[in-house]
Design a protein that fits this description.
The complex is a heterodimer of chains A (about 270) and B (about 300). Chain A has about 270 residues and is mainly α. Chain A is about 70% helix and about 0% strand. Chain A has one domain. Chain A is elongated, with a radius of gyration of 20 Å. Helix content of chain B is about 35%, strand content about 30%. Classes of the chains: A mainly alpha (about 270), B alpha/beta (about 300).
Chain lengths: ~270, ~300
């Protein structure tokens, strides 16, 4: 046997810990891509087929047909839900199975931890969102050529997808730290994340709502993510995209600060 | 010789319970050190504090002079921990698992070393197998491999042989002993007292968050344990009162503690005089279990 005591080991690379954790988080969902990417794309496609079938001939929003209007909302909803799912399920799984020790024992800082999980979550969101756009966009282009689907300002699209995904990735870290069991995480997802995304204007423009509900919608941060994201496609939105970006950025910074404070304390991770 | 692990007045509370109650301990480089105690004594809490899995409420812990809180990066690089629970990440193969673990410690291109550990732990042909497909014993060996990817000079094994079959246990101990001979400091917690007896040079016995005994294994055995005579009698009721006072029921027989080997002959003579017919007998060597039981009993009275 080789001499295990042969020292010193190679000089450790300060950033490799973060890079490795990030890569592991990416591989974790990519290896089960059928479940983590293909499945949500199919779900979004089903939403599109059903709602567009029922409503396309009746509704036009922001000067485009309903089938086209729906695409960015579905894509952004998928970005947000999958970003949340990635960090939260990874964390709760490793907590429940105990394999979390493998990342708690090495010299990883709480910043390494945050950056790796949030970045991987945002990228999973982007991958799924891109898949939803590609599939639903193709279907609409073939079935409703005059729907008016286009990408007016890709910069806004990318900015909102990345920031929104990062915010939900950080929220997923909070949920994953807080939850001790899978059903607690499911409660977080079903009673907070789902209502916030479903009632954010994925399926409608808030201008179609009664004044009271319009007012309520403006307190939902996800509304600004969807609205700003949609502006990138149609160049039209319910509120100015700059305001939406400011709200989403502020939301991300707040969530990130809270998440970092919990991670630094080792909340429910280190006894 | 440098101090491998220094633990200074460490307190760790969980609510009202003091899992570690001002514990101090110093372990030299190159020792094979045993940490023994009943469930709930605080062994795993102590290891958790050392490894950064738990934070002490007060006190200091150092690995080769590096503080585990203030200088956690350096301290964690010097420490390899084999956790008690049989945990694994079901998404990855053995090699992926070990590459990730190397990366977390900042080590790239570590495959030569990974191959060597795999060979030493007899896992070479499982390198590309998913963790899920391994038997319990193999998963246990991967845990050992994971603790060694960064060549830590101090290695902690927390109950590594719980639920492990005899063959694997022997293999694991041969390997760990080799590590120790090469200069690694080994800290072992175990419930198997005979393991601690054969492997550890020095032992700390813990109870309720404190060290109740700390000495070389030989000294502990000499101080708290002695030979004993075990007999199975045809008619235990005939046992004379003076012997009955010394006897402890043990399995289907009785165990008579002996102050020394010289007391053996008179004890046997006493049995013969009182007409006891001996069906079976054994002379028991000093036993760490006695040390354990005596110490815990002492603690209970005082």
């Amino acid at each position: 046997m080789a001499d295990l005591h042969a020292r010193p080991p190679a000089t450790p690379d300060r950033w490799l810990g973060f890079q490795t954790l990030f890569k592991k988080e990416m591989l974790r969902f990519w290896k089960v891509g059928f479940q983590t990417v293909a499945a949500p794309v199919l779900t979004a496609l089903l939403y599109l087929l059903i709602f567009a079938h029922v409503l396309d001939s009746h509704v036009a929003v922001h000067g485009v047909r309903y089938a086209a209007f729906l695409i960015p909302g579905l894509a952004m909803m998928s970005v947000l839900q999958n970003a949340f799912a990635n960090s939260s399920s990874s964390l709760i799984q490793s907590k429940v199975t105990g394999s979390i020790v493998f990342v708690l024992l090495p010299p990883l800082s709480y910043l390494d931890f945050f950056a790796a999980f949030v970045l991987a979550a945002a990228l999973r969101g982007l991958v799924v969102g891109a898949g939803v756009l590609a599939v639903t966009g193709t279907v609409v282009a073939l079935a409703v050529p005059d729907a008016g689907f286009a990408v007016a300002a890709p910069g806004w699209v990318l900015a909102f997808a990345l920031l929104g995904g990062a915010l939900m990735g950080a929220l997923g870290l909070i949920a994953g730290m807080w939850a001790d069991k899978f059903d607690q995480l499911a409660a977080f997802q079903n009673f907070l994340v789902m209502p916030l995304t479903m009632l954010s204007g994925v399926f409608y423009s808030i201008h179609s709502l009664p004044a009271f509900w319009q007012g309520i919608s403006r307190f939902n941060p996800v509304f600004y993510m969807i609205d700003g994201f949609r502006y990138g496609f149609f160049g039209a939105s319910d509120v100015a995209p700059g305001l939406s970006l400011a709200v989403v950025l502020g939301g991300f910074l707040l969530t990130a600060a809270f998440t970092l404070a919990l991670l630094k304390r080792g909340y429910k991770l280190r006894a | 010789m440098a101090i491998a692990v220094s633990i200074d007045r460490v307190v760790k509370r969980f609510g009202a319970l003091a899992a570690l109650d001002g514990l101090s301990l110093s372990i030299d480089e190159g020792e094979f050190f045993g940490l023994l105690g009943p469930n709930g004594a605080g062994k795993t809490t102590l290891i958790s504090c050392l490894a950064g899995l738990a934070r002490p409420d007060s006190g200091r812990l150092q690995v080769l002079g590096r503080d585990v809180v203030a200088d956690y990066r350096a301290a964690r690089r010097l420490l390899g921990v084999v956790p008690q629970e049989l945990v694994f990440d079901p998404f990855f193969t053995v090699r992926e698992t070990l590459r990730f673990q190397s990366g977390y410690f900042g080590l790239t291109r570590n495959d030569d070393w990974i191959d060597e550990i795999l060979a030493a732990l007899d896992l070479t042909d499982k390198a590309n197998t998913n963790m899920r497909r391994l038997s319990g014993g193999m998963k246990r060996r991967v845990l050992v491999a994971q603790a060694l990817v960064h060549k830590p000079p101090v290695i902690v094994l927390d109950e590594p042989t719980a639920g492990v079959d005899v063959e694997l246990r022997q293999g694991l101990w041969a390997f760990v002993r080799q590590l120790n001979e090469q200069g690694h400091t080994i800290i072992l917690t175990t419930h198997y007292l005979e393991e601690a007896e054969t492997l550890c040079g020095r032992i700390a016995m813990m109870k309720q968050g404190k060290v109740v005994a700390l000495d070389t294994t030989a000294n502990l055995l000499a101080r708290f344990s002695g030979h004993a005579l075990w007999v199975r009698l045809a008619d235990p009721a005939r046992l004379p009162a003076d012997l009955a006072a010394r006897a402890v029921a043990d399995g289907r027989g009785l165990r008579l503690a002996l102050a020394g080997a010289a007391e053996l002959e008179p004890t046997l003579a006493r049995l013969r005089e009182s007409g006891c017919s001996v069906e079976d007998l054994r002379v028991l060597p000093p036993d760490l279990e006695d040390v354990f039981v005596n110490l815990l009993r002492e603690g209970a009275h005082g």
